[in-house]
Structure formats: structure tokens, C-alpha cells
């Protein structure tokens, strides 16, 4: 009778899993077909930036380095009198965006501001001016700032980290319970850990979908619209996340019996297939899907992520449960098997990481000249430290000391866990950073090999400063003003100067252009490397103003 009861339950679980897979199939069917590309950069425009044309054009054409998608309401052409000069919706064809404008517009300077989405789901924004007949005072874009709130950018990284952490908490207990767990020990603790992990992955996936709306369109955490959600769900990013949710729903019904007791071979195989498919959704929603070799990058990134989850999840199970609860005989059987698994996982991590670096970095110099490259170097250094600790643990296991005295192994495992948590945080930042191959290539007008960013606070306001490429020669300066609630703040007038006292260079005025109420932009040539002093004054009313200073290292 017991066997007759278990069989229908297993069939019910498999049917429920099939229902979850149906959600996945639907998401795959609605996924758009997109070409491979990366963080797009504006290569050229017609009319050209800062040019003077004899008569008003009927359209403004933006040409990007890669294919881009629309962000609703974020492409505008502002006439000299501050009115909208664009007419109708812009058209998108690969990397070319065509904006219809009124050809009978007034003489003077026009402002073009844009925000689009690269194929890897990251927004790209910018602005430039052109003049008809003769230049005039540049207009100000009275629309909403096209830049996402800094809180949103931080929340996106936190959501990525929670997703990685949830994957570790899910994979580790599931794997150990299925293959290594002693029958005499209670499964309650690992089971709770696994369900917590699954909940974190689901929460992080939903949070990603929500945050992608303000992240791409600009605005705060709750600046979301139905049109924004429609744009996200209709993208490859949205489809990958919907697929992940479907696979998670399907796996729930097979995971429950596995966590409660040793699973049958068929259920374990199905669950492994679902897990492998779910791993692919991470790279499909990020940089790997938009790399020069997308098929290779996606598979390699999935292997990298899966190996990390197996290794770190297994370490967690050792530290929290097995090294505390298992006896000497059980540890003598478990540790050699785990040691082999860990060696395989680390080997896969190293191989996959090497291939990833070759694809995303493109050339060795980009490791030092780009933010992505420097983060990657930090990750490699931390990983090398973990490998050294893991080698010590493996030596203890091979000498059969670990089963008799598990305390040294447990301390080593805790060190591995602590460092790899930092590695996860670096990884969460990496997926939000422009790949080195794109940053090093830069726009056609010159390579962007570096970047400086800081936030300067005063009792009145906070100014976020961005200087690019932060090296000798021409540099672009972006200034963003925020109030105490971290919301965009209206600035009536901006002033800025740069000086290099160590070289006897007196303050040089930075010509600034107000792009929005809270955003100003300027270009300046810095003739020599050094620690330049950037002094910024922002006037918010007739009587209120604040001055802040930043030290900008120029190479």
C-alpha cells in the first residue's frame, strides 16, 4: 500500500513540475529575437554635435555602436525657446535612431537628450547641442532627469547579490542531502536553508524585474508605469527572468521530496536538468548574451555560476552542519568525496573565468585602464586567497587528519566562506559595470580608458561628480544635484573651476551646459596629469548656494 501511495505522489509532483515548465515555454515563446551587442555608445549624429547648420533639419539621426531599444519618452529635442522640437515617436533600426523634428523651427541652439537600452539591458544616456543659423544660449530640458536614482542603482546590485546568495543556499543543501547526508542526522536544518535559498532567488528575480523599470527609464524606486513594465517584459532581460520564475515553480514540487528523503534517480535527473536550465537565465539577461561570442559566453558563465554554487554551497553545509554533527566514521567517508567535488568545481571556475576574461576584457591593458578590469583583478586576487585556503583544507583531508580533528578544517572553511562572500559582492558589481572591451573601445571620437566618480555633500545639497576619461587631454564633466532625501534638486546656476596648484596652474573655468534642472555638463582640456582640484558652486535660489571641492586624479 505504501508503494501505491508514493507512486501517485511522484506522478503528481511531476505533473506540477510540468505546469511550471509550461510557464517557462510561454516565456520563451514571447522572448524577442535580438542580435548580439554590448553597452552601446553614440558614435555619430546628424546634425553633428556642436555643429552649425544653415537650415533646420527634418530629422535628427543618432548612430550607436550597437543595437539599442527604446525607453518610452526619453528621447527629446528642445528648441531654443525651451519648447519640444521633436514630432512623433523616434524610429529604431538596429543601432540607428531617427527622430523627426520640425524643419521650420527657429534659429538658435537646439538640445538633443536621449536615453536608450543596450542589448545587455543597461541604459545609455547622453546629450549634445547643434545650432541652426547661429548659436544661441542653449535651452534647458524641462523634462524629468533621464538618470536613474542612485538608490535604484544600489538596489539593483543588492538584488543581484541576493540572487547569488540564494542560489548558494539552494544548491548546497540540495546537493549534500541528495548524495552525502548521513541517514541518522536530522534533515530539518538543511531543508530550511534550501527553502530560504529558493525564496531568495525568487524574491531577487521579482525585484530585478521591478527595478529594471526605473533603472532603464530613470527615476526612483516607485517611478514605474505599465508602459515601463511592458517594455521590460518584452525584452530578452524580462523573458529570461520569467523563464527563471517558471523553472523555480517547476522545481518546487520535485525539491520537496528530495529534501525530505533520498530522491529517486529519475526525479534527481529532472531536477538537475531544471537547475541547469535555470542557471542559463543569469547570463542570458546580462553581458554574456551580448558578447562577441554569445553562445560561448552564455555557457561559460552558466558553468562559472554553477561551479560557484556547488563549491560555496558545499562549504556552507560543511561549516554549519557536517563538521559539527557528523562523527569520525561519517566524516571519513564524506570529506574525501567532497574534496574531489570541490577540486572539480574549482577547476571549472578557473577555466570558465579565464574564458570569460578573454572575451570581456579583450586586451591586457584594459585590466588596468577600466573599472571592469580593476574589479576583475580584485576578484582574481580574492579568488587566489580562497584557493590557498582550500589547498590547506585538501591537504588535511588527504592526510586523514580532518575526520579525527575537524576544528582546523572548519576554521579554514569559515575563512573560505568569508572571502567568497566578498567575491560574490564584487561579482554583483561586475554585472552592472560596462565590460572592459566596450569601455576600452569607447566612441569613435576617442577611447574612454578611465572614469572618476564621487559624491560631495554640503548642508544644502549633494553633488555627484563624474569625470571621463580622467586622463590628460579632453575630459567630459557631469554634475548631478540631489537634496537631503536623495531626490533630484533644481539648480538655478552652476559654476565650476579646475586648478593644479602643484604645477602652478591657476583655476580654469569649466564651461557648463544645463541639460536638466539638476544635471549640468561640460567639456575641458586638462594639459597635464596630476591631482586636479575641481571646485563646484551650485546656486539653488537667489540667496542659497553651496560650494564643494573634489580632488580628481588625472593620469
TrEMBL record:
Residues 39-132 form the CopC domain. Keywords: Cell membrane, Copper, Membrane, Metal-binding, Signal, Transmembrane, Transmembrane helix. Residues 333-430 form the Copper resistance protein D domain. It is a multi-pass membrane protein. InterPro entries: CopC/D, CopC_dom, Cu-R_CopD_dom, Cu-Rt/internalin_Ig-like, Ig_E-set. GO terms for biological process: copper ion transport; response to copper ion. This is Copper transport protein YcnJ. It is found in: Cell membrane. It comes from Micromonospora noduli. GO terms for cellular component: periplasmic space; plasma membrane. The chain crosses the membrane at residues 161-181, 193-213, 233-255, 267-285, 305-323, 335-359, 371-392, 413-431. It comes from the Bacteria. GO terms for molecular function: copper ion binding. Pfam families: CopC (PF04234), CopD (PF05425).
Amino acid at each position: 500500500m505504501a508503494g501505491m501511495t508514493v507512486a501517485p505522489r511522484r506522478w503528481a509532483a511531476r505533473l506540477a513540475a510540468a505546469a511550471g515548465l509550461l510557464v517557462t515555454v510561454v516565456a520563451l515563446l514571447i522572448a524577442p529575437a535580438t542580435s548580439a551587442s554590448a553597452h552601446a555608445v553614440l558614435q555619430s549624429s546628424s546634425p553633428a554635435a556642436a555643429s552649425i547648420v544653415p537650415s533646420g533639419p527634418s530629422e535628427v539621426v543618432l548612430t550607436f555602436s550597437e543595437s539599442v531599444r527604446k525607453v518610452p519618452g526619453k528621447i527629446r529635442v528642445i528648441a531654443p525657446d525651451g519648447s519640444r522640437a521633436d514630432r512623433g515617436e523616434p524610429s529604431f533600426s538596429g543601432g540607428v535612431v531617427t527622430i523627426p523634428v520640425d524643419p521650420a523651427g527657429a534659429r538658435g541652439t537646439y538640445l538633443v537628450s536621449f536615453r536608450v537600452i543596450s542589448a545587455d539591458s543597461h541604459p545609455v544616456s547622453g546629450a549634445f547641442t547643434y545650432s541652426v543659423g547661429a548659436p544661441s544660449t542653449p535651452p534647458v530640458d524641462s523634462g524629468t532627469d533621464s538618470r536613474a536614482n542612485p538608490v535604484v542603482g544600489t538596489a539593483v546590485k543588492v538584488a543581484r547579490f541576493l540572487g547569488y546568495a540564494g542560489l548558494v543556499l539552494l544548491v548546497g543543501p540540495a546537493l549534500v542531502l541528495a548524495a552525502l547526508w548521513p541517514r541518522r542526522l536530522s534533515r530539518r536544518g538543511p531543508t530550511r536553508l534550501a527553502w530560504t535559498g529558493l525564496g531568495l532567488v525568487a524574491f531577487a528575480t521579482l525585484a530585478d524585474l521591478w527595478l529594471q523599470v526605473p533603472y532603464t527609464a530613470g527615476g526612483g524606486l516607485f517611478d514605474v508605469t505599465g508602459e515601463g513594465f511592458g517594455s521590460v517584459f518584452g525584452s530578452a532581460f524580462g523573458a529570461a527572468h520569467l523563464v527563471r520564475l517558471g523553472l523555480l515553480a517547476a522545481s518546487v514540487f520535485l525539491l520537496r521530496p528530495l529534501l525530505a528523503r533520498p530522491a529517486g534517480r529519475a526525479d534527481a535527473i529532472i531536477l538537475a536538468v531544471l537547475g541547469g536550465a535555470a542557471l542559463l537565465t543569469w547570463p542570458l539577461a546580462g553581458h554574456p548574451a551580448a558578447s562577441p561570442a554569445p553562445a560561448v559566453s552564455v555557457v561559460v558563465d552558466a558553468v562559472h555560476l554553477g561551479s560557484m554554487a556547488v563549491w560555496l554551497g558545499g562549504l556552507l553545509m560543511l561549516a554549519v552542519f557536517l563538521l559539527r554533527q557528523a562523527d569520525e566514521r561519517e566524516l571519513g567517508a564524506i570529506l574525501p568525496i567532497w574534496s574531489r567535488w570541490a577540486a572539480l568545481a574549482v577547476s571549472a571556475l578557473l577555466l570558465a573565468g579565464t574564458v570569460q576574461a578573454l572575451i570581456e576584457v579583450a586586451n591586457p591593458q584594459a585590466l588596468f585602464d577600466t573599472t571592469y578590469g580593476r574589479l576583475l583583478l580584485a576578484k582574481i586576487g580574492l579568488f587566489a586567497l580562497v584557493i590557498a585556503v582550500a589547498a590547506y583544507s585538501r591537504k588535511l583531508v588527504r592526510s586523514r587528519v580532518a575526520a579525527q580533528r575537524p576544528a582546523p578544517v572548519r576554521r579554514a572553511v569559515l575563512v573560505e566562506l568569508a572571502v567568497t562572500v566578498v567575491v560574490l559582492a564584487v561579482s554583483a558589481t561586475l554585472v552592472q559595470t560596462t565590460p572592459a572591451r566596450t569601455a576600452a573601445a569607447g566612441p569613435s571620437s576617442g577611447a574612454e580608458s578611465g572614469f572618476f566618480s564621487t559624491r560631495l555633500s554640503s548642508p544644502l545639497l549633494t553633488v555627484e561628480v563624474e569625470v571621463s576619461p580622467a586622463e590628460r587631454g579632453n575630459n567630459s564633466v557631469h554634475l548631478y544635484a540631489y537634496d537631503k532625501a536623495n531626490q533630484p534638486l533644481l539648480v538655478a546656476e552652476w559654476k565650476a573651476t579646475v586648478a593644479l596648484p602643484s604645477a602652478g596652474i591657476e583655476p580654469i573655468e569649466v564651461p557648463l551646459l544645463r541639460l536638466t534642472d539638476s544635471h549640468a555638463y561640460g567639456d575641458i582640456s586638462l594639459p597635464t596629469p596630476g591631482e586636479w582640484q575641481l571646485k563646484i558652486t551650485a546656486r539653488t535660489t537667489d540667496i542659497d548656494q553651496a560650494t564643494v571641492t573634489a580632488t580628481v586624479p588625472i593620469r
